[in-house]
Design goal:
With about 600 residues, the chain is of the alpha+beta class. Helices cover about 45% and strands about 10% of the residues. It is built from 26 helices and 13 strands. The strands form 4 sheets. Strands 6-7-8-9 form a 4-stranded antiparallel sheet. A 4-stranded antiparallel sheet has the order 10-11-12-13, with helices on one face. Strands 3-4-5 form a 3-stranded antiparallel sheet. A hairpin with a 2-residue loop joins strand 4 and strand 5. Helix 8 runs antiparallel to helix 9, helix 10 crosses helix 13 and helix 15 crosses helix 17. The N terminus is likely disordered.
Length: about 600
C-alpha cells in the first residue's frame, strides 16, 4: 500500500506513516546530495485528542483491557474493517502508551502471522499514536525485512522513534544505530562531530573516524559505545588486512565501555557481534605496542570475560577460557612487564593508583586459584581512569549472578555488604540487597536474597527482582542455592580480608566511618549524626564525611520534621598513612564543632 493510499485509510486524518514521509520529503537535509540524511531533530506528532475521562487503567486491569481490545482480532482475518475496529478500541483505552506497549510485549500470540499482518496495517494506516505504538510493539517481536522502510520513517517522529528503533535494530542494526546516535547525541557533545561525519558520508571510511574518536568515560557511555560499533560495522573493519593496531585498541575500548555498569543495562549483551569482535580483538592484541594504556584496556576486557556481563555472551564451550589464556600469556610476557612496573616515588597519586590497579588486577584474574565451592565473591575495582563504581561480583557455579538475573545495576560496594556483615549467614534468616538499579530501587528495582544457615549448609533463597531483564525478556527464575557452610564462611573471610582494591582515601573513609559508628558521641555532642563516609571513584584523592545537623539530636529530642542542615567534610589525601589521618580527624571532631569547617550542602532554609 502506498503512502497516498494510506492517507485517510482509517479516518479523514492522514496516517502517521504518511505524515512522516511527507515531512521527510520536505524537510531540510544535511550533507552531500548522494546519501544525504534528514536533519537530526525528530518531528512532533500531530495533535491528538486527550485520553477519555475517568480513571486510568494500570497493572493487571490495564493488561486485561489491552488483551480484550486485541485478543479476538489478533488471530482474525487481515481486513481493513478488522484493523479499523482495533484502531477504534485502542484509541478509546483510558491508558497512556507505555502501559499499552508493555501489555502487548507480554501478550501471548497464538497466530504470529495474523498478528504480523495486523501490526503492518496499524503502523501503515494508524492515525493515532496508540495503535501505531501497538503495531510497533508487535513488529518488535515479529518484524521482517520488508518492514524496514516503514520503521525507518517512523524513527523520525517524536514519541514513536524509541519503539521504531527497537523494532528496527534486529532487522537493520546499522541504520538503527546511526539514527539512535543522531537523535541522542547533543550539539554540544564531543561525540557530535563523529556522528555528523558518519551521517555525511564518513561511513565510507569509518576506520579513520574510529581511530580518531575520543573514548573517555565522559564522551562515550555504554549505549553510545554499542551504537558506534554497529554504525561503523566494527567486526568487518577488524577482519580486514592489514591489521591496524590503533583500530584493535579502539575496538577493545568499545567492548569495555559496553560492559560498564554506568547504565541501566550491560549493552555488550545486546551487541550481536560481540563474540566475534572479542575474538578478533584478542587474536590481534599481539599487534598492540606494550604500554600502560593498552595493558589497561586489555586487562579491563579480561575482567569482564572473567566475571562480568561479557562472560554471559553465547560462547562456544571453552572459548572464554581460551581467550583468557591468550590474554594472560600476552600480559605476562617479558615485552609487557614494563607496563606493570611500580612508578617512581615522585609520580602523581593518579599514576600510582593505576599502577597498583594493574598489578593487583592481573594477579587476581590470571593467578588467583579457582574457587573451591559453588560461590565466588569478588570485589571489582575498575580502571581508575574510568572512575566506574566499585562493585561486588558474585559467581554462582562460575556464572556472574547480577547481570544474569538483574542487569540494571552493579553489585553493591564491599563496604555496604561486608561492613555490617550483611552476607554472614546465621540461623535467623535475613534478607540482603545484593544490587540496586543504576537509578534507584523505587524506579527500576533491586536484587534481593534471603540468607540463612541450616545445619551444615548456607542457603540463598526467596529471590526478589524484576520479572524482566532490561531487554524485555523474562528474568531467570532462581532456585534455592545451597553451599557447604565451611566453604561459604571461608570464601566470605577471604573476600573480607582482601583490601588491595582500596586506595588511601577510601581506607581513610572506612576507618572514620567505623570509628564514628562506634563513638557516636563525637558527632552527637554537636547535634549531628553521621550519614556516610566514602571516597568516590570520581574523586579518589579525598574522603568525604557526610553528616546531618538537627537541633536536639544529642539529647534525643530532635524533631524529625523540623529544620536540618546537611554537611560534607572533605579530607584530602595528604600522603600520610590512613590510620594516622583518621586519628587526627577524630581528634579534631572531639575538640571543634564540625559545622564550623565542613561545607553546607543542603537543608531547610
Amino acid at each position: 500500500m502506498s503512502a497516498q493510499d494510506e492517507r485517510g485509510a482509517l479516518t479523514d486524518r492522514p496516517s502517521l506513516y504518511a505524515y512522516a514521509l511527507s515531512l521527510i520529503e520536505a524537510g531540510p537535509r544535511e550533507g552531500p546530495a548522494s546519501g544525504a540524511v534528514i536533519r537530526r531533530q525528530g518531528f512532533p506528532l500531530p495533535d491528538e485528542p486527550p485520553l477519555p475521562n475517568g480513571p486510568r487503567l494500570r497493572g493487571k486491569n490495564g493488561f486485561a483491557a489491552v488483551r480484550a481490545a486485541l485478543g479476538p482480532l489478533l488471530a482474525g482475518p487481515d481486513t481493513p474493517e478488522a484493523a479499523e475496529e482495533i484502531h477504534r478500541r485502542l484509541t478509546e483505552l483510558p491508558m497512556h502508551n507505555g502501559p499499552v506497549v508493555g501489555a502487548v510485549l507480554a501478550m501471548p500470540l497464538d497466530d504470529p502471522a495474523a498478528a504480523r499482518a495486523l501490526a503492518r496495517r496499524l503502523v501503515r494506516t494508524g492515525t493515532h499514536s496508540t495503535p501505531v505504538s501497538v503495531g510497533l510493539a508487535l513488529l518488535r517481536r515479529l518484524g521482517e525485512p520488508e518492514d524496514i522502510p516503514v520503521l525507518r520513517a517512523l524513527t523520525h517522529l517524536d514519541g514513536l522513534h524509541g519503539l521504531a528503533l527497537t523494532a528496527l535494530e534486529p532487522l537493520d542494526p546499522r541504520t538503527a544505530a546511526l539514527r539512535w546516535l543522531d537523535l541522542r547525541v547533543r550539539e554540544t557533545d564531543r561525540l557530535r562531530p563523529f556522528v555528523d561525519a558518519l551521517l555525511s558520508g564518513g561511513a565510507r571510511d569509518p576506520r579513520a573516524l574510529l581511530i580518531g574518536l575520543p573514548l573517555d568515560v565522559g564522551t562515550v557511555g555504554p549505549a553510545p559505545a554499542r551504537r558506534i560499533a554497529e554504525a561503523t560495522g566494527l567486526a568487518g573493519l577488524l577482519r580486514r588486512e592489514p591489521v591496524d593496531p590503533r583500530l584493535v585498541a579502539r575496538a577493545a575500548r568499545l567492548l569495555v565501555r559496553m560492559a560498564s555498569p554506568r547504565d541501566y543495562a550491560a549493552e555488550v549483551r545486546t551487541y550481536r557481534e560481540a563474540v566475534e569482535v572479542c575474538e578478533l580483538v584478542v587474536r590481534r592484541s599481539s599487534t598492540l605496542p606494550p604500554c600502560v594504556e593498552h595493558a589497561a584496556v586489555l586487562l579491563s576486557l579480561a575482567v569482564d570475560l572473567h566475571s562480568g556481563p561479557t562472560r554471559l555472551l553465547p560462547w562456544r564451550d571453552g572459548q572464554v577460557e581460551q581467550l583468557l589464556d591468550a590474554l594472560g600469556a600476552l600480559l605476562h610476557s617479558p615485552e609487557w612487564e614494563g607496563a606493570f612496573t611500580r612508578p617512581d616515588a615522585d609520580a602523581s597519586p593518579a599514576v600510582r593508583r593505576r599502577a597498583e590497579w594493574l598489578r593487583y588486577t592481573r594477579d587476581r584474574v590470571f593467578q588467583d586459584p579457582p574457587p573451591g565451592g559453588r560461590l565466588r565473591i569478588e570485589v571489582l575495582s575498575h580502571d581508575p581512569d574510568d572512575d566506574d563504581p566499585l562493585e561486588t561480583r558474585f559467581l554462582l557455579d562460575g556464572e556472574p549472578l547480577v547481570p544474569a538475573v538483574f542487569g540494571r545495576g552493579a553489585g553493591h560496594s564491599p563496604e555496604y555488604l561486608f561492613g555490617d556483615e550483611r552476607l554472614r549467614a546465621t540461623e535467623e534468616p535475613r534478607e540482603v540487597q545484593l544490587a540496586e538499579a543504576w537509578c534507584s530501587e523505587g524506579c527500576c528495582g533491586a536484587l534481593w536474597v534471603t540468607i540463612a544457615r541450616e545445619g551444615d549448609e548456607v542457603v540463598w533463597r526467596d529471590w526478589r527482582h524484576p520479572e524482566r531483564l532490561p531487554g524485555g525478556e523474562p528474568a531467570p527464575v532462581l532456585p534455592a542455592y545451597r553451599f557447604d557452610a565451611v566453604s561459604y564462611d571461608a570464601e566470605l573471610a577471604r573476600t573480607t580480608a582482601e583490601n588491595r582494591w582500596s586506595w588511601p582515601a577510601r581506607t581513610l573513609a572506612r576507618l572514620v566511618r567505623e570509628s564514628l559508628n562506634a563513638r557516636r558521641e563525637l558527632l552527637g555532642r554537636w547535634d549531628c549524626r553521621l550519614q556516610y563516609a566514602v571516597s568516590p571513584t570520581r574523586t579518589p584523592d579525598s574522603a568525604e564525611v557526610w553528616f546531618l545537623y538537627r537541633p536536639g539530636t544529642f539529647e534525643g529530642t530532635e524533631d524529625k520534621n523540623g529544620p536540618w542542615i546537611q554537611f560534607v567534610w572533605y579530607l584530602p589525601d595528604d600522603g600520610s598513612p590512613p590510620a594516622e589521618r583518621a586519628a587526627a580527624a577524630l581528634r579534631r571532631l572531639a575538640a571543634e564543632d564540625p559545622r564550623a569547617y565542613a561545607t553546607c550542602v543542603g537543608g531547610v532554609r
